[in-house]
Amino acid sequence: MQRYRRDERAPSVLHSAYYNDHLEHLEKRIARLETGTCWTEDPATRTAHLVHNVEVEHTDDPDQYRVRSISVVYRNMNEDEEHTLHCLREDLLRRVDGHLRIARRLLTVQQNIFMNKSLNVFP
Fold first, then answer.
1. pLDDT tens across 26-65, in order?
2. If we measure between CA atoms, which residue out of 89, 87, 86, 76 comes closest to residue 117?
3. Residues contacting residue 73 through CB under 8 Å, at least 6 positions apart
4. Host H or E run for residue 115
5. What is the pTM for the complete model shown?
6. Pick from 30, 31, 85, 93: which is nearest to 63 by CA?
7. Which of 1, 19, 83, 105 is a good FRET partner for 113, with 20 to 30 A between their CA atoms?
């Protein structure tokens, strides 16, 4: 009998995703926010977004770019609730009709434990 060690493969980042939205899901979430009756946004959340350490690289397709960056979102709700969300962001940008559009976005939250009550911002 032969014994050997087999290292477990790390699970996919999507295995523990908070959201795995497609365009249709995003449109529904935005439409919900625009109804004016979204109780999670009363009073409105104040946010500030900071994107930095942007790295852009070409892909095999001349109309696509791979972009990596770091995103920090500061969020203030009510009188005493403040949250800061740190993310690694990986985007695939595609040129469509002369404009760059987001074809895919992967956000990896850097906190081990997610302390926010809700995630209703788009980092």
1. 788 778 777 777 666 667 778 899 999 999 999 999 999 9
2. 76
3. 47, 48, 49, 50, 84, 85, 87, 121, 123
4. none
5. 0.66
6. 93
7. 105
